Amino acid sequence: METLPTTTTRTPFQYTGDGLELALLMLKNLFFTIITLGIYRPWATTNMRRYNWGHMTFLGDRANYTGTGGELFRGWVKLALLLMAGGLVVRIASAIVEPLALIIFLIYLLVFALATYSGLRYRMSRTQWRQIRFGVDKDERMTKEFIRLYVFGTVLTALTLGIYLPWFRNSVRTFLTNKSRMGRTHFSYDGPSDMYAWIFWSGFVLSLLTLGIYAAWWTRNLARFRLEHTRFMGQNFELELSGLQILGYYVAALGLTLFTFGLATPWVYVWGMRLFADNTFISAVPDLSSVENEYSDGSAMADEIVMGYDLDLGF
Amino acid sequence: MATSRGKFFGGRLATTELVDLEVVGHDLIIRSADKTLGRWPIDRIFQDESHLVSIVIGCGGDNERVELLDSNILSELPIKSTVWSYAKIKQNLPALWLWGLGSIAILSFLIWNSGLLTRYLVRQIPLDYERRVGDSVVHQTGWKPCELNKEQQAAAEQILDTLYKADPDKRGHIRLNWVADPMNNAFTLPGGSIYMFSGLLQKTESAEELAGILAHEIEHVERRHVLESLMNGLLLTALVNFVMGDVSAIILLDPSTAAQILSLRLSRDMERQADQGALRRLQSAGISPRGMVDFFARSSQDDPTTSKLSFLSTHPFTEERARFFEKAIPKDDNPFESFLAPDKWKALKTICAR
User: Fold this and answer.
1) Domain containing A313: what range?
2) For helices B342-349 and B150-163, what crossing angle results, to 10°?
3) Beta carbons of B33 and A2 less than 8 Å apart
4) For residue A256, is it within any domain?
């Protein structure tokens, strides 16, 4: 009998999903979602996460997602009630107070900030690898700090007509990554915002000038920057993917999806996941025997807000 | 005695070990290279369902897990393998077909009956709200109704009064507006507003033709067809967004968007209902349906590439409709007689004239 080998060399992640399996899972999800008029959606989301997490392997071991459809459903119900109550208040108040728009904007900002933080916390707390839970630290002081950062970033982004956006995104990433952990061991992110902003804006301009062709290299450069500056136990992540590979994927994915009226979506999705996962490495595998487990939690309602408003910022 | 290979996760540290698994009596024995890692009572073993793509088992409330690397001992464990793999799915293909056909049947049923739900919902919407929706559309389009002089006003009022001869109480909520625009069209908006464009007015050659068109539009108003179509579209949009995951879809879109309403196409059923109602209205008002027949006949003779009337192009099956009105012309109908005096018809034709 033997212990599984550990390695100190550069090691890739691996996605082992299969197009046909995913297609059937999507079909099942779609069927139940339609016949239950959408009620099944949280369970469908959970199925997809369980499938994707289960096929994401590192060092031969699969990750797993421990969240449940019931949790997400309860989160969704709370969010629906909140939105309906909010909508009612806005309708009544807008008839009375004119400068209400500013107050609503601030409330939304606050909700989005909290949702971004707690949503990530929920997903991480439901993610395990080798039975070790991931998590995101959060207490009152950290929450206030994040809200300040989020509100300041959004307002400054609006005032600078979007120019501040990459600085804002990078500062959010710095905050959230530094609070993220596997068990008790923290991740860290040290990407300088000025450099991130340079990659962001130069890529944006070049993508415009090349009618979108450069977007593939832009995506690659941003992803590579983010990974290279993310560390775990002193080791950083790497992306070994060329812009041409991403461009090829984009073109083929678009063509396949259009010409099959969307039927090829599962295969295109699996291909994309494989392309990115199989080309992502950790520079060297650290001594994982010192990574201890730790209990984590998060809000399913926040996760619903994150999904509903697309706030996940690529986490 | 069957044995299996597995991966053991202790749950305290991020390490894993390859293990041998053996069922001995009522226990599962987990052995690593040099020691026994666990002895799990079979009746307390469960499958960890958070693992969708591999069989992972646990015991009691512990955080320890074992991933089975083969299925040798599976039959001896109190679990049913629920792994999402193609091999597993293939066993359930008949059920899958059943799902597919079932979903088509249910969808068809929902679509077939969506009209009933829409009509019920439309009846619950107060007229005041409907009128506000219509007003906001006009506000967004920027249409400015032409000012009518006394003679024009009197002539227009007489047509409406005549068309509402059978139910004069309802006459009050109709608001007829004339807009200087070469478009050959007439619009009915939510809340009882009818917009008649000067282009269409110029195409009509008798008061009976104009009355026929108006009677048709009035029926759309009375039956709240525009709101019904709008509600149908909104419900579908909301349903699709809701099903596909846009949580904000539970707050229905603001239905006052002009483009949404102006691009609405009423269903054939609604057009048929409006024609049937219009004929009854014309008959009870003592107006000959010949006007509609003449109008349809003249329109179909126009060169379709240059002068096809958009009033008709948005109203399909023209010939069928013409025949419908033609059958209702009384034998003693006098084509040279009109319900509106010639001077009043003349006044009407000058509405919106520059």
Assistant:
1) 78-205+291-315
2) 110
3) yes
4) no
Determine the pLDDT at residue B139.
74
Tell me the chain B residues in contact with residue A288 when contact means C-beta distances shorter than 8 Å: 13-15
Using CB atoms, which residue from A76, A80, A131 is nearest to B11? A131
Give the distance from residue A229's alpha carbon to the nearest chain B alpha carbon, in angstroms. Answer: 23
Q: How many domains does chain A have?
A: 1
Which residues lie below 8 Å from residue A6, measured CB to CB, with a gap of 6+? Answer: A59, A285, A287, A288
Closest CA to B270 of B228, B325, B309: B228
Tell me which chain B residue has its CA closest to the CA of residue A59. Answer: B16
Give how far A184 is from chain B: nearest CA, Å.
10
More confident residue, A154 or B307: A154
A145 — pLDDT class (breaks 50, 70, 90) = very high
- For residue A222, the model assigns a pLDDT of 95
Answer whether B102 sits within 8 Å of A31, measured CB to CB. yes
pLDDT one-digit tens code per residue, B137-166: 777 777 788 888 999 999 999 999 999 988
Domains annotated on chain B, with CATH: 3-90 (2.30.29), 125-349 (no CATH)
CB < 8 Å to A290, chain B: 13
Specify if A250 maps to a domain.
no
pLDDT of A81? 81
Q: Decide if A2 is inside a domain.
A: no
Query: Residues in chain B with pLDDT < 50?
Result: 245-263, 303-316
B150: its two tokens: 């006394």
Burial B126-151, CB ≥16 within 10 A → b, else e: eeeebbebbbbbbeebebebbebeee
Chain A residues within an 8 Å CB radius of B63: 131, 293
Q: Measured between beta carbons, which residues in chain B are less than 8 angstroms from residue A64?
A: 48, 50-52, 56
Q: Is residue A133 part of a domain?
A: yes
